[in-house]
């Protein structure tokens, strides 16, 4: 593999870890990233697109700045530009991201606070979605609810799981710190203990969070395809993550 | 009317239709162009291929096509006009009450006219609402909380200014408040689709019905949570329904979830015409069956009786439609499917 190809792959892998906060899916896998260009001096230029001209500015900004930070974290990268295509706030977003401004600086008259609140709220939704998927997987393996709910994080990490279970666990543990609470692996988004007697009801209640994200993901993919047709994206040939949430939903 | 496989005739109220003008002559700026392009994206992404129109036809299909698609080729008995003004994007507006009234005058029994208000219009707007309610005998309004107005990019329905309008609406007998969220609200650092304001309104105005269009999408999860606590919150199926074609698995899960959280009496069919046409939507809905594993998850079924409520019964209740009288007058008279007889 050539050095240039290896570096492009590194950038793509870094971008693949950036998620759309509403959909909790990788911006690469969603087809948002359209170009990665690496100049001779190791300046990286990333271009991306969104399903509509109206996609909310705050989420667009979060994705753009997360992409910038993800690529800038690679040791050999000298500078990064992330440029969004065709959007109602395209100038403010591209300009703000280029200058590493926070959201209130990029939108001085329309924003009163930075995006931490949104990031936390959607991080917690992602927490619930990933938790539901993992809990259902563990239950399906025949592990007793009392045992699952008594696990601490180390205990959860020590469980022997198959490849799917392992992937679900890794994804869940990425979000676990957001919910705080006692030193248990599984708590509610408010950091409260989950009782095994009410686990079924609890799962029933949080189910809607994942379904909403999946439904929106399907909608966004449809809108993106309708808007751009077969325009190129930098989709990997094979998705690397297990496509766990969409299994079974045609 | 839709004739079911068992021969039963189903009364259909289409809770969400438009007759818009997004022709190049009426477009004011780039936002108007992008707005209709986005609508077309929904149309193209979720319609069966044989139902996809050209962008030109989609921009302005006109009243004759509309009457044909709803009442002649389509199964609608009554359609509810939901106006969307967007005067900052379109010179004469996108689809206004005044324009909709032209068809209402021609087919008085077949259309229900909904109005609109904007809390940012102050005292003058309250007077205009009163005049509008009197002229058109309004029973409902459609609100678009993300509509641009001068420098403002939207409002919340729980704003004090909005409460003045809701109080006025209640006094005027406007009971049905249809709400659509959009992505351009100020402050931009908040979640623009947040449906929490509906929660407050629904508690504070128990005599009004709040119909959340598109079931709160893309915040269906939050919407369900609010709706289960507020008995006067309803879900409109526009945008959700066409998933029956492109993603039937998701549609099954979502409708099942809605039946679980809202129940069969608080879900309203709407085609969102001209984004989609009611003919194929109603046909697919009537033929739709929930898979066993989905039914097992929520314990909810989608029976013929429930389909009848969603397709017309629930809206008839909210809008005070006398279904039997309508059937008597329109169904079995000669040429009952010809809208011309409604003149």
Quick description:
Chain A is mainly alpha-helical and 250 residues long. Chain A contains 9 helices and 5 strands; from the N terminus they run αββββαβααααααα. Chain B has a 5-stranded parallel β-sheet, with helices on both faces.
Can you describe what's shown?
The complex is a heterodimer of chains A (250) and B (343). In chain A, a hairpin with a 4-residue loop joins strand 1 (19-20) and strand 2. By secondary structure, chain A is mainly alpha-helical. Chain A folds into two domains: 3-114, GMP Synthetase, Chain A, domain 3 (2-Layer Sandwich), CATH 3.30.300; 116-213, no CATH class. In chain A, helix 5 packs antiparallel against helix 8 (163-175) and helix 5 crosses helix 9. In chain A, 49% of the residues lie in helices and 9% in strands. Chain A has a three-stranded mixed beta sheet. Chain A has a two-stranded antiparallel sheet with strand order 1-2. Chain A has helices spanning 3-16, 57-72, 90-98, 103-106, 116-140, 145-150, 153-158, 163-175, 199-228, and strands at 19-20, 25-26, 33-38, 43-48, 79-84. Chain B has 343 residues and is α/β, with parallel strands linked by helices. In chain B, 43% of the residues lie in helices and 10% in strands. Chain B has helices spanning 30-46, 55-59, 62-72, 97-106, 122-136, 160-171, 196-204, 220-229, 243-246, 248-261, 278-287, 292-298, 304-319, 323-330, and strands at 2-3, 9-10, 13-17, 78-81, 111-113, 140-144, 176-180, 209-212, 233-236, 267-268. Chain B has a five-stranded parallel beta sheet with strand order 6-7-8-9-10, with helices on both faces. A three-stranded parallel beta sheet of chain B has the order 3-4-5. Chain B has a two-stranded antiparallel ribbon with strand order 1-2. In chain B, strand 7 (176-180), helix 7 (196-204) and strand 8 form a beta-alpha-beta unit. Chain B is globular, with a radius of gyration of 19 Å. Classes of the chains: A mainly alpha (250), B alpha/beta (343). Chains A and B meet through helix 5 and helix 9 of A and helix 1, helix 8 and helix 10 of B.
